[in-house]
Amino acid sequence: MRGHLGLKRKMRVGQILKAQRKLRKFGSPKFSSKRQMAARRFDINRSLDPPGALAFFLASAVNSDLTSVPGIGDASVTALREQGITTTHQLIGQFLLLKGENTTWTEHLDAMYNWLTLVGTEIGSRSRVVHCIAEKCTIMIPSLSVIPERD
Question: Model-level pTM?
Answer without folding.
Answer: 0.69
